[in-house]
Amino acid sequence: MSTHDTTVNEAGKRHKHEGPKKHIIAFIFSILLTVIAFSMVAAGEMNSTFVYIMLVFMAILQVIIQMSFWMHMKDRGHIFPIIGILMGVFVVITIVVMAEYWAWW
After folding, report:
1. Is the pTM value of this prediction over 0.85?
2. Which tens digit of pLDDT belongs to each residue from 64-104?
Protein backbone atom coordinates (compact mmCIF):
# COMPACT_ATOMS: atom_id res chain seq x y z
CA MET A 1 0.00 0.00 0.00
CA SER A 2 1.31 3.40 -0.85
CA THR A 3 0.87 6.34 1.49
CA HIS A 4 -1.12 8.08 -1.23
CA ASP A 5 -4.01 5.61 -0.84
CA THR A 6 -4.17 5.46 2.96
CA THR A 7 -4.74 7.64 5.99
CA VAL A 8 -4.17 7.01 9.67
CA ASN A 9 -7.11 7.40 12.06
CA GLU A 10 -7.08 8.30 15.79
CA ALA A 11 -6.42 4.70 16.84
CA GLY A 12 -3.33 4.54 14.63
CA LYS A 13 -4.91 2.10 12.18
CA ARG A 14 -4.57 2.60 8.45
CA HIS A 15 -7.72 3.21 6.43
CA LYS A 16 -7.73 2.60 2.68
CA HIS A 17 -9.59 5.20 0.62
CA GLU A 18 -12.38 3.94 -1.64
CA GLY A 19 -11.68 6.33 -4.46
CA PRO A 20 -14.26 7.90 -6.73
CA LYS A 21 -15.23 4.75 -8.64
CA LYS A 22 -17.90 3.55 -6.17
CA HIS A 23 -19.25 7.07 -5.73
CA ILE A 24 -19.62 7.54 -9.47
CA ILE A 25 -21.42 4.20 -9.79
CA ALA A 26 -23.73 5.11 -6.88
CA PHE A 27 -24.43 8.52 -8.44
CA ILE A 28 -25.27 6.98 -11.82
CA PHE A 29 -27.53 4.41 -10.15
CA SER A 30 -29.30 7.17 -8.19
CA ILE A 31 -29.86 9.20 -11.35
CA LEU A 32 -31.10 6.09 -13.16
CA LEU A 33 -33.62 5.34 -10.39
CA THR A 34 -34.84 8.94 -10.51
CA VAL A 35 -35.25 8.88 -14.30
CA ILE A 36 -37.13 5.57 -14.17
CA ALA A 37 -39.47 6.86 -11.44
CA PHE A 38 -40.14 10.08 -13.34
CA SER A 39 -40.75 8.18 -16.58
CA MET A 40 -43.21 5.81 -14.94
CA VAL A 41 -45.25 8.67 -13.51
CA ALA A 42 -45.01 10.83 -16.63
CA ALA A 43 -46.18 7.99 -18.89
CA GLY A 44 -49.52 7.82 -17.10
CA GLU A 45 -50.55 4.70 -18.99
CA MET A 46 -49.43 2.12 -16.41
CA ASN A 47 -51.54 0.56 -13.70
CA SER A 48 -51.47 2.99 -10.77
CA THR A 49 -51.04 0.23 -8.17
CA PHE A 50 -47.99 -1.09 -9.99
CA VAL A 51 -46.56 2.43 -10.24
CA TYR A 52 -47.06 3.03 -6.49
CA ILE A 53 -45.39 -0.25 -5.57
CA MET A 54 -42.45 0.41 -7.90
CA LEU A 55 -42.05 3.97 -6.58
CA VAL A 56 -41.88 2.73 -3.00
CA PHE A 57 -39.42 0.00 -3.99
CA MET A 58 -37.21 2.46 -5.86
CA ALA A 59 -37.40 4.93 -2.95
CA ILE A 60 -36.16 2.22 -0.58
CA LEU A 61 -33.30 1.44 -2.97
CA GLN A 62 -32.50 5.14 -3.18
CA VAL A 63 -32.35 5.42 0.62
CA ILE A 64 -30.03 2.41 0.83
CA ILE A 65 -27.71 3.90 -1.79
CA GLN A 66 -27.69 7.32 -0.13
CA MET A 67 -27.04 5.89 3.34
CA SER A 68 -24.37 3.46 2.16
CA PHE A 69 -22.28 5.54 -0.19
CA TRP A 70 -22.89 9.19 0.64
CA MET A 71 -23.39 8.94 4.42
CA HIS A 72 -20.89 6.04 4.74
CA MET A 73 -23.18 3.96 6.98
CA LYS A 74 -21.63 0.82 5.52
CA ASP A 75 -18.35 1.58 7.30
CA ARG A 76 -17.41 0.39 10.76
CA GLY A 77 -18.30 2.47 13.79
CA HIS A 78 -21.75 3.60 12.63
CA ILE A 79 -23.88 1.18 14.66
CA PHE A 80 -25.46 3.85 16.88
CA PRO A 81 -26.63 6.07 14.00
CA ILE A 82 -28.01 2.98 12.27
CA ILE A 83 -29.88 1.94 15.43
CA GLY A 84 -31.25 5.48 15.76
CA ILE A 85 -32.44 5.52 12.16
CA LEU A 86 -34.10 2.11 12.52
CA MET A 87 -35.83 3.21 15.73
CA GLY A 88 -37.06 6.33 13.94
CA VAL A 89 -38.44 4.22 11.09
CA PHE A 90 -40.16 1.95 13.64
CA VAL A 91 -41.75 4.96 15.40
CA VAL A 92 -42.96 6.49 12.12
CA ILE A 93 -44.46 3.19 10.92
CA THR A 94 -46.17 2.74 14.31
CA ILE A 95 -47.61 6.27 14.17
CA VAL A 96 -48.93 5.75 10.62
CA VAL A 97 -50.52 2.40 11.48
CA MET A 98 -52.11 3.77 14.65
CA ALA A 99 -53.41 6.83 12.78
CA GLU A 100 -55.03 4.55 10.21
CA TYR A 101 -56.70 2.48 12.92
CA TRP A 102 -57.87 5.63 14.67
CA ALA A 103 -59.35 6.99 11.43
CA TRP A 104 -61.12 3.69 10.71
CA TRP A 105 -62.52 3.32 14.22
Report:
1. no
2. 888 887 777 777 777 888 888 889 999 999 999 999 999 98
